[in-house]
Design a protein that fits this description.
Blueprint (H helix, E strand, L loop, with lengths): L6 E7 L7 E6 L3 E6 L5 H18 L4 H4 L12 E3 L4 E4 L12 H4 L3 H11 L27 E5 L1 H4 L21 H8 L14 H9 L11 E3 L2 E3 L6 H10 L11 H6 L1 E5 L10 H4 L2 E2 L2 E2 H6 L2 H9 L4 H19 L16 H13 L7 E5 L10 H13 L3 E5 L3 H5 L3 E6 L8 E6 L8 H7 L14 E7 L7 E6 L3 E5 L6 H12 L4 E3 L12 H4 L3 H12 L22 E2 L11 E2 L10 H4 L8 H5 L3 H7 L3 H12 L16 H12 L6 E5 L7 H16 L3 E5 L3 H6 L2 E6 L8 E6 L1 H4 L5 H11 L8
Parallel strand pairs: 3-13, 3-14, 5-12, 12-13, 18-23, 18-24, 19-22, 22-23
Antiparallel strand pairs: 1-2, 1-4, 6-9, 7-8, 10-11, 14-15, 16-17, 20-21, 24-25
Helix pairs in contact: 4-13, 12-13, 13-14, 23-24, 24-25
Length: 763
């Protein structure tokens, strides 16, 4: 009897835009899913395969444990067999709070603390005493944060206004919040007198509270009458409520809002470490624990390997593999103290990969979401080596990827398409590279780099002088105006520091389109995000004489059964969650009354079912046409007006963010890896957008590793030569043609791409 092939069997996949597809995925191979952005790659890999594997894994736990774990709904598929446990490495930000660092995320910090508690001199005590979050270990000055943050009275208060006129320029303390209302009604302060006209005593009481030893009674008025309360002063209250606590869980306010009305400086007591000075006296080979945390990872490896004490050596040996994994992933320029929240999407993903590489489990399925993101062509070979090592440990590696160097290394390629959105959802190729022909990926593999031989003349410069942000070494730069500029270099070389920090400080009017999310919800649609839903509702209201709210599923027009959600999620206790379309509205979210009215022959649902391309021919209002055309410009014409933003792919979200900014003219645009998540066929559409932007008088500056974008630019700036301390300098400034004669790492790959796409990097 022939041996049965060990492969994952998927039948009748229908999640999102998938067209009832069947797939057999061989195990212990590297399988790359590629295809246009929105073609259905994530629907197969994440929404079907990963979700079902996770769902079945949770079934092994008792019901009361499952109730505390993430709960997964069964994907829309007819059959899923031979699944193995999955390890999912996405590009989403790594979890953790504002104090989460590379050291804490990788579980290296506890070992370093243990090391210092055992062999550091003078001896301190337990390992916990070396933490800025312990009562002994934290700095008494800054409470362990490393920064002294204090309210800036001149930013917080407009002295020319009264309390009622919003003299306090911080929303929770203004009349719109209960605290601001309390200030106006407590009887201590005149709510209609400008703060500048207060007596010195009253102004001091408002800002700083009562003098030491005194108390200021300030009744807090409610519908049940006054309640006794004491006024503590605007600045002490701000410090206590918004600085000396974790505000990340507050809905009304963000860290940025607090910092906007504050001053913040390095804590002079702990020099930013957050640690008690007594802790900092403890050293190993001349270094204290804060200095250990600041070392770049290769330097840290050297220190750990130099430990001779037998006890210390055994602890160091446990930390060394995790540190080495990070170095092997091309992240040697990082330190343990680097905040996870400051990493780019590609860096965060590589830290996650390094964390998973430490385990010795096998027969798993590893799923990666574009692991080449944020990698220079010079660094992609590190990634490919890591993927092969995972496979060699008898694991299956499934990757969503556009990088042609990674595609070439696949044992099997699966291309989704033929188009995107409603035009995608089919498998257009499955097999080995040699048989891949006549598809968007096949064409991209054959295409050579097209160097811009006729760059535009610049219209002056944006000078930057003496930039020292992060690892920048007193950099002077002249960035040309009115042209397309690419800034490139290896990871950690200083690209973001130069453009997103130094340039932004010199030219704060710049428009930044970064890699962050867009705050999406299940009720956010393409039309609402682009700001045209109000105009569509207004058009309905004008044509029908009904209130505009009737044409919103968040307001009067909501289906009375599902309350505008379109689906029902009945409580099923310990069973898997179930989502079913609302029978009352058929999933449309709208009430029968709302759907009974028409504008230009269509009801509100039929309008929202229009694709962007169709909407451009349907509407006549100029504002709607302007916004719709920008979506067409960035290649999103296939999406519908009513498509939820939560269902978009990463590449689609990036282009949507760009489209939302494209209405502006005569501007400076700063873009952080705009090709992220894009297939090579989509790159041309996006490049066309940038060229049109520049033609209309804008300056466009992009941080990129994508050689197609670099080659098409008018001007290139390369940072380097390495990452971290080895970076922070300008290696090259000139045209793409000039770069062919340069001796830099990017120039090497550019020359290679002009001759052949054999090993070059595009997305």
């Amino acid at each position: 009897m022939p041996q049965e092939k060990d492969e994952i069997v998927l039948r009748g996949l229908k999640e999102n835009n998938l067209k009832n597809i069947d797939l057999n995925l061989p195990k212990e191979k590297i399988i790359v899913f590629t295809g246009l952005s929105g073609s259905g790659k994530s629907s197969v890999v994440f929404d079907t395969l990963a979700t079902e594997s996770r769902r079945q894994m949770t079934l092994n736990y008792p019901a009361y444990v499952r109730y505390q774990m993430p709960r997964y709904e069964r994907p829309h598929a007819d059959l899923m067999q031979n699944l193995s446990p999955v390890v999912v490495v996405e590009q989403k930000p790594a979890g953790g709070n504002s104090r989460s660092t590379v050291g804490t995320y990788m579980d290296i910090d506890p070992l370093i603390r243990l090391l210092f508690s055992r062999i550091g001199q003078p001896a301190i005590g337990s390992a916990n005493d070396f933490s800025s979050q312990s009562s002994f270990g934290r700095c008494p000055e800054c409470g362990g944060f490393g920064e002294v943050i204090a309210p800036d009275v001149n930013k917080l208060v407009d002295f020319d206004k009264s309390l009622r006129e919003h003299a306090v320029r911080f929303k929770p303390l203004s009349p719109s919040g209960w605290q601001g209302n309390w200030m106006m009604t407590c009887g201590l302060f005149d709510p209609d007198k400008p703060i500048r006209d207060y007596s010195e005593e009253d102004r001091r009481l408002l800002l700083y509270g009562p003098r030491e030893g005194e108390r200021a009674y300030a009744p807090f008025h409610t519908k049940n009458g006054p309640h006794n309360a004491e006024w503590d002063g605007l600045l002490p209250r701000f410090t206590r409520v918004y600085i000396n606590r974790d505000i990340s869980k507050l809905k009304q306010i963000s860290q940025e809002d607090v910092l906007a009305v504050s001053t913040h400086s390095l804590c002079p007591t702990c020099q930013g470490s957050g640690l008690n000075p007594k802790v900092l006296e403890c050293r190993i080979n001349g270094l204290n624990i804060a200095e250990y945390d600041q070392l770049e990872l290769p330097e840290l490896l050297e220190e750990l390997e130099n430990i001779q004490d037998p006890t210390g050596e055994s602890i160091a040996k446990q930390a060394i593999p995790n540190v080495r994994q990070l170095v092997d992933m091309g992240l040697g320029y990082l330190s343990l103290s680097r905040k996870m929240g400051t990493l780019s999407g590609g860096e965060a993903q590589r830290v996650k990969i390094a964390r998973h590489l430490g385990n010795s489990l096998n027969n798993l399925t590893y799923i990666f979401d574009e692991p080449s993101a944020g990698l220079h062509p010079e660094e992609v070979h590190l990634l490919i080596g890591m993927l092969k090592r995972i496979k060699e440990q008898h694991n299956t590696v499934i990757i969503i990827e556009h990088d042609l160097s990674v595609v070439r290394e696949a044992d099997q390629i699966i291309e989704m398409g033929p188009g995107a959105g409603v035009n995608g959802g089919n498998v257009i190729f499955q097999g080995q590279l040699a048989k891949l022909t006549n598809s968007p990926t096949a064409k991209a593999l054959e295409q050579k780099l097209d160097i811009n031989e006729n760059p535009r003349d610049h219209k002056g410069y944006f000078p930057i002088r003496g930039a020292r942000n992060n690892n920048l070494k007193n950099v002077d730069a002249d960035v040309p105006k009115g042209v397309l500029v690419s800034v490139c270099g290896v990871s950690g070389s200083g690209k973001s520091s130069l453009i997103l920090e130094a340039f932004k400080e010199w030219y704060p009017e710049s428009i930044t389109v970064g890699q962050g999310g867009i705050g999406i919800s299940s009720r956010s649609t393409m039309a609402t995000y682009m700001g045209i839903m109000d105009d569509i509702r207004a058009a309905f209201a004008k044509a029908t004489g009904q209130p505009a709210g009737l044409f919103s599923f968040n307001s009067l027009g909501a289906c009375p059964v599902c309350k505008g959600k379109g689906v029902l999620t009945p409580e099923v206790a310990f069973a898997d969650p179930v989502t079913i379309p609302c029978e009352a509205c058929g999933g449309t979210r709208y009430s029968d009354e709302a759907l009974s009215y028409r504008y230009e022959g269509k009801n509100i649902i039929e309008i929202l079912e229009l694709t962007i391309d169709e909407a451009a021919d349907y509407f006549t209002q100029q504002k709607i046409l302007n916004r719709v055309n920008t979506l067409k410009d960035v290649g999103l014409g296939y999406l519908t007006l009513g498509q939820t933003t939560s269902s978009l792919s990463g590449g689609e979200i990036q282009r949507l963010k760009l489209a939302s900014q494209l209405q502006k003219e005569g501007q400076i645009y700063l873009l952080d890896e705009p090709s992220l998540g894009l297939h090579a066929a989509d790159d041309e559409k996006l490049m066309d957008v940038f060229q049109k932007l520049v033609d209309r008088g804008n300056s466009v500056i992009i941080i990129e590793h994508n050689l197609d974008f670099i080659a098409a630019s008018d001007w290139v700036i390369e940072m380097g030569p390495g990452g971290g301390k080895q970076g922070g300098q300008i290696l090259f400034e000139g045209t793409p043609e000039d770069m062919l004669n340069a001796e830099t790492v990017t120039a090497k790959w550019l020359k290679d791409g002009v001759g052949s796409r054999g090993q070059s990097k595009t997305r």
